[in-house]
DNA sequence: TTTCTGTATTGAACATCGTTCATTTTTATG
DNA sequence: CATAAAAATGAACGATGTTCAATACAGAAA
């Protein structure tokens, strides 16, 4: 019955990630403290370090979960048999909706930095890839002569552009802008990008 | 001769900001430590807190300086009597060039977060405004019916889009991309945004 | 110049954080 | 049930930002 050990460890891991997720959602990544996580997870402080190497490991796990929910939300938003303009529009607005609804968790995806010199693990970098894929799909039909790499790079450019508009707004840089106005701007940019393919 | 007091204080402030700037340039914002700053500035640890309320205050001062240098670099890049497409292109590539040359200092502009609940001071928010203004100028001629607010918001959208592409790349999210390729993508986006105004 | 007073500077001390590890508790096995 | 191995615990450690009583200094008065 060595299964009980595994089950307990998995349960602890789940509780820690859940606690971390709730704390980031409520207070943002910056306010995250190991002691708060352990307390909320009903574990001892040291328990966190039997599952993760350090806090960064737990944050990556939280971000993993956020990315999965984001992916589900975006895939739900893709209309079947739509023009590329409609697809870009739906994806962009769904991305905006997710960022607004889960502001702190979404921000943690991009705010988090590994310590000096430590690279983001490859498995986590790969988890971001679907964002590119969602755009590369529709894009491929409009870039006939292009290689897969060309398409992926252009998809990344389009994603980053929309992401930038949302990030700058939600970070509160510059003077404020109403959510309605932000939605209009995101839609306008999505249309500009789609039209550039004609 | 109460001037000597002011002069010493200003000198201390200068040394602290210079030290902070060098440390962020070398090690990034995340590795910044109060003790390192004080040592490099040739001051006692407590001295830092006679000039700034806390580390955030010093970081804002460093970011102020970075913004001034960025502003100078961008203004230098605007060609006289150019089309809007050429202007967008020059500005975007100059922005990319600055971000690449001063990666850590540029990143600090957007990575830095005030503590939970503390807003960025208005005077520092205002320092970002020139970025919008540089784009709003050329834009105004192409948006005849629009209000000044409309133009400012659209300028912000365009800036944020280009910024997003550069930020996502330099942050090392997703898989890497060569500097040449990044330059091409930034140029392509600048052109797309300019053409959308025709 | 010398003395005195208020200000500026100092760095040891403090509170808080992430992380470690000797100890205790729990689980699996003979 | 007894014993060994593994896991969980939380006190302790080192590093950090910040404070503050003690010290050094600048400016005014004599």
UniProtKB/TrEMBL annotation, chains A, B:
InterPro entries: Homeodomain-like_sf, HTH-type_TetR-like_transc_reg, HTH_TetR, MT1864/Rv1816-like_C, Tet_transcr_reg_TetR-rel_C_sf. It comes from the Bacteria. Signal peptide: none annotated. Keywords: DNA-binding, Transcription, Transcription regulation. Residues 10-70 form the HTH tetR-type domain. Residues 33-52 bind DNA. This is TetR family transcriptional regulator.
